[in-house]
Amino acid sequence: MINIITGNINSGKTTRLLCIYNAKQQGDGFYSPKIFIDGHYAGQEVVRLSTEERKLFSFKKGFIPEGWDEQYYYHSYSFSNNGFLFVRNIVLDIMQNNIEPIYVDEIGPLELNEQGFYNILNLLLKTDKDMYITVRESCIKDVIKKFRLSDCNIIFSTTC
Description:
Elements: E1 2-7, H1 13-24, E2 28-31, E3 34-37, E4 40-48, E5 54-60, E6 70-74, E7 77-80, H2 81-96, E8 102-107, H3 109-112, H4 118-125, E9 131-136, H5 140-146, E10 152-156
Parallel strand pairs: 1-9, 1-10, 2-8, 8-9
Antiparallel strand pairs: 2-4, 3-4, 4-5, 5-7, 6-7
């Protein structure tokens, strides 16, 4: 079963994903907490749920650190090659060890443009495992269509 946690930007999708993971006490995946610098939203990390290991993932223009390993730039965001490699390794480990459910934060405009976690999500969908993915409400219809998600459960983001 594909469970889609949805809501607007800053509505608590990631928090809801974490609540579900903590309540179930099983499975693995990743989430992307925000990075703030001097009180300003600067980007995101990517964190493995089971280990809390984390890597820098994205930065907004104006916050990109020196020596940053950009994989690509999308709108005002730069995304890290190391961040994507980290996520890929998490997913390969999950698949190799037959871990379920799988948690993915977040699928949206990048994936609709066949970037970001597009290939990773397609790979995970082939496993036919239970998954929880976060999707912005404005993208949900397009994500369902793009990834052919015919049998999915919609969960609206709220606090735990």
